[in-house]
Amino acid sequence: MFATNPFAVLSAHIPPAIIQGYVIVMIILVAAGTLFDIVHKGSAKYFFDNWRKSKSKAAQQVEGGALLSIAVQTAVVDVLASGEFCNARRRIAHLLTMYGFVLHVKATAIMVFFYPTLATPTPAIWPLLWWLGGLMLLVGGYWFWFFIRVDVAAEGNSPFRVVHADLFVLSLLASVTLGLIWACLQANGSAASGLFCGLYILATTVLFAGVPWSKFAHMFFKPAAAFEKRVSYANGTRSNLPAPADKPEQFGSARTAPRHY
Question: How far apart are the C-alpha atoms of 245 and 230, rounded to whole Å?
């Protein structure tokens, strides 16, 4: 089961071209949804305006090697290590979810486009990474949802209350959960595999088509925001955002490091 390409098995019932076309449509939906989110919320305009204001008020210009150094720090600390999270549990859950998502999606694309049928044997590493990424994502995602996320009950709301901001994590968990169940049932020849395949496709469509209404697009904005924040602290203008997580000493005396729960 863990060494079998579930999409190649599926190609016996659905032509590979349709499966590949579906993946391409999902990619287009993500790109279009992100652009819509940028235009609708004015995120790009905000960051460019903030960047120009920061440069015009800078006590010192940050260029060349210093700018490259900040870009590397942003990539390593803020993106790869999720340095924005001060709470260790929150960071670990986020990293499990993030890297699990990357592994799962990459393995899916490789298996769908390079090994679409059983006639082209799939190297065992790709199905294994697909399962590993999916399980990592589920551990991180469910850990966050049930044990780490904001205590809505403390705010007077029902713990079962769901808002637009929850669409991404819920549809992501639903997609991967149903996908792994489908692959397991398919490998065991269960008649229920068709039902779970349909539910998997439905949840995945909601995940990628719901970009304008979810927090999916934030993964593209956050690196830019983290970079701008570091540059503004480096050039002396400060940012209207909290200081980088790995530089708490840059907070003013009246401010303290943010707490993430």
Answer: 10
